[in-house]
Amino acid sequence: MPGKPWSAEEEAELRRLVDAAEPLNIIASKFGMSEGAVREKCKRLGLRVVVSTCRRKITTREINLPVELPSVEEALKILAGALEAAAEPDLDQVEIRRLHVVATLAKTYKELLADYINYRDIEAKLVEMEKKYARLAEKTQSNAS
């Protein structure tokens, strides 16, 4: 059952909000309508609206840093989850971009973690060599006395 007709002013405002890339949920709340009603109107007007899957924006200042680094296995599980989700039919562009970001971040994390583990191995060998050098220097001094 169709709702009340949109006025020319409401259509103009809808176009302005869509052009400004406002998320669908925000537009719907501004008009006091359901997201479905706004989505249908956008379709009829040929407008592409941003569908927000996350109600909260996160900036780098809000990211909680983990105490321990996730393992390569955990990063691969995230990547596998993104791959599985990407195989779903009818994904919208926002979700596709989000999954692409997840996959890119998981891959980057795996590479950086491998570098970090390699660095930690080198660091441990260096500490071991410093101890051996200290013992050798001690032994050399005691032999010289």
Q: How many beta-strand runs?
A: 0
**SSE ordering:** HHHHH
Strand content: under 5%
Summing up helix and strand content along with how strands pair, one would put the structural category as: mainly alpha
**Shape annotation:** rod-shaped
What is the structure about, briefly put?
The chain has helices spanning 8-19, 24-31, 35-45, 72-86, 93-144. By secondary structure, it is mainly α.
Describe the structure.
This protein has 2 domains: 8-45; 74-144. Helices cover 68% and strands 0% of the residues. It has helices at 8-19, 24-31, 35-45, 72-86, 93-144. It is rod-shaped. The model has no long low-confidence stretch (mean pLDDT 81).
Detail the topology: elements first, then pairings.
Blueprint: H1 8-19, H2 24-31, H3 35-45, H4 72-86, H5 93-144
Helix pairs in contact: 2-3, 4-5
Comma- or semicolon-separated keywords:
2 domains; mainly alpha; 68% helix
